[in-house]
Design a protein that fits this description.
Blueprint lengths: L1 E6 L13 E6 L2 E7 L3 H5 L10 E3 L5 H4 L2 H13 L7 E5 L4 H5 L7 E5 L6 E3 L2 E7 L7 E7 L2 E5 L9 H5 L4 E5 L16 H11 L3 E5 L8 H8 L5 E4 L5 E3 L1
Parallel strand pairs: 3-4, 4-5, 5-6, 10-11, 11-12, 12-13
Antiparallel strand pairs: 1-2, 1-14, 2-3, 7-8, 8-9, 9-10
């Protein structure tokens, strides 16, 4: 598997950046995980919107779905220009029917409801879910293919359920919207300390901090997480590629 960070800001993108969006590739299949503000503009440096094979969405906050509409229009326009493509499946939970309905657009995209209590197969990937602690219904994902596993926490306060869910993962892509000592749980988010503690308890092979705050010295997040986790830690960076 190869993971490419497209966007990593929490809440909204900083200037010239993008909020949550991650491209996961395996055996020629391209899965876009979340699609926040600015993702389409950045994505086109790596892959064109008509080349994506599937999308999956953790929840319906704008910093995770804002660019779905523009990807729908991009694929529509490319169709007018003569490019042939299949209907793009967008997998998401159906607990918010109003937002879920927007995932289906003409014959361009189709919303596909995943069942959080059941494994989901998307191309070469097997995906399992755990519900997070967040103001809107949201699901973390464990994505496996080729004998490797990536866990994406999506947005959540820390919860003990993440430990067995993340156990021995090759990569933990963990939200880190707050610094050590701040009250992140009330906002449904994690601190650097939470991220490091989760990585250590689950015994993951590496930790990437994402969904980053717009304030403070981001390098402090790594230092604070390293007080809990002794493995490899990095901040998410635009177009960072991790091959497992």
């Amino acid at each position: 598997m190869k993971l490419t960070i497209i966007g990593f800001w929490g809440g909204y993108p900083k200037a010239n950046g993008a909020s949550s969006g991650y491209l996961l590739e395996h055996d020629g299949f391209q899965l876009l995980i979340d699609c926040g503000s600015g993702v389409l503009a950045k994505l086109q440096n790596k892959v064109q919107p008509e080349e994506i094979d599937a999308m999956i969405v953790s929840h319906y906050h704008p910093d995770h779905i804002a660019d779905i509409g523009v990807i729908q229009h991009a694929r529509l326009i490319q169709g007018f220009l003569g490019k042939k493509m299949t209907t793009l499946p967008i997998y998401a939970h159906a607990e918010n029917q109003t937002e879920f309905a927007k995932l289906t657009y003409k014959d361009i995209t189709k919303g596909m409801a995943y069942q959080p209590n059941e494994p989901l197969t998307v191309g070469p990937f097997t995906i399992t879910f755990v519900k997070t602690i967040h103001p809107a219904p949201c699901y973390a994902m464990r994505i496996e293919a080729g004998g490797k596993a990536i866990v994406y926490t999506a947005d959540s306060a820390y919860q003990d359920a993440f430990v067995p869910f993340s156990e021995k993962a090759d990569l933990l892509l963990c939200e880190c919207n707050f610094y050590a000592g701040q009250n992140a749980s009330n906002a449904g988010h994690m601190t650097s300390t939470d991220a490091g503690m989760l990585a250590q308890k689950a015994g993951v092979k590496q930790l990437i901090l994402t969904h980053l705050p717009q304030f403070g010295n981001l390098e402090n997040l790594v230092t604070e997480a390293a007080a809990e986790y002794k493995g490899f830690i990095s901040l998410a960076e635009e177009f960072m590629e991790i091959t497992l």
